[in-house]
Design brief:
With 254 residues, this protein is mainly alpha-helical. The chain is 75% helix and 0% strand. The chain is elongated and about 75 Å long.
Length: 254
């Protein structure tokens, strides 16, 4: 039995014991039936430590998506792309998988210099046992904090500092992630909504023009979207829209 299977069985048995304590005491459930013997942990403490480490690692892995979304440019990119699709009015085209994949690779492109610094300054020296784990975390967090603080408004940062009753610091790099991450997130959402508003304007004007023409011709039953959609797609192609949108996103982080 491997460690992952052991952890799953232990969690299932613990849940069963909490939900049905009477049945467990009545049947006299023996963990040795499942090949689990905790008495051996006294003779083999390293095995129990390794099991706990695997459990902690699996727990940390569940937080990776949240870390990716809230500490990188992913939020701004994916929101802008979603606004763009809504402005065009093409329903589910491009599909969500394409937008998420494009947003992910744009995020990797933008964050590559930051993660390169983290790898060179923190991860590699730590793996070479040149620095301790605490030093590696402190050094590795600085490039990420620097990127986030450059994209965060002082107003948003001050909001969470006041909420946590923190005094003004001379060096913002001393702030913890619990303060920087939410401030960075709402700053990213504000920027993404601002870009989305600009994207909506030309398509909104085209919808208004088409709707006015249809009403003047007495074609009240014909949906304006059906007529305006091909023209919006044609306009987007003629101005090379995808290039302009991605270029604007990349410049917004420079």
């Amino acid at each position: 039995m491997n460690k992952r299977q052991l952890i799953i069985i232990v969690l299932l048995l613990a849940s069963f014991a909490v939900l049905f304590p009477d049945q467990v005491s009545a049947t006299g459930l023996d963990l040795s039936d499942f090949g689990i013997n905790f008495s051996s942990s006294e003779n083999e403490p390293q095995a129990l430590v390794d099991t706990v480490k695997v459990f902690i690692l699996l727990t940390v892995l569940t937080l990776v998506p949240a870390f990716l979304i809230l500490t990188t440019c992913f939020t701004r990119v994916v929101v802008v792309l979603s606004f763009l699709r809504s402005a065009i009015g093409s329903q589910q085209t491009p599909p969500n998988q394409v937008l998420m994949g494009l947003a992910l690779f744009i995020t990797l492109f933008v964050m590559q210099p930051v993660y390169t610094q983290v790898m060179d300054q923190a991860v590699t020296p730590y793996l070479s046992e040149e620095i301790t784990q605490e030093e590696a975390f402190d050094i590795g967090s600085r490039p990420i904090k620097k990127f986030m603080l450059e994209q965060t408004r002082e107003k948003d940062l001050a909001l969470f500092m006041r909420a946590s009753n923190m005094e003004n610091l001379d060096d913002p790099m001393e702030l913890s992630f619990t303060v920087i991450v939410p401030a960075f997130t709402i700053s990213e959402l504000r920027m993404a909504f601002s870009i989305g508003f600009i994207l909506f304007l030309p398509f909104l004007v085209m919808d208004i023009v088409v709707s006015s023409i249809l009403m003047s011709m007495g074609m009240f039953m014909l949906p304006p979207v059906m007529i305006s959609l091909p023209f919006k797609l044609l306009l987007f192609i003629l101005v090379d829209g995808w290039y302009l949108v991605v270029e604007s996103l990349l410049r917004s982080f420079s």
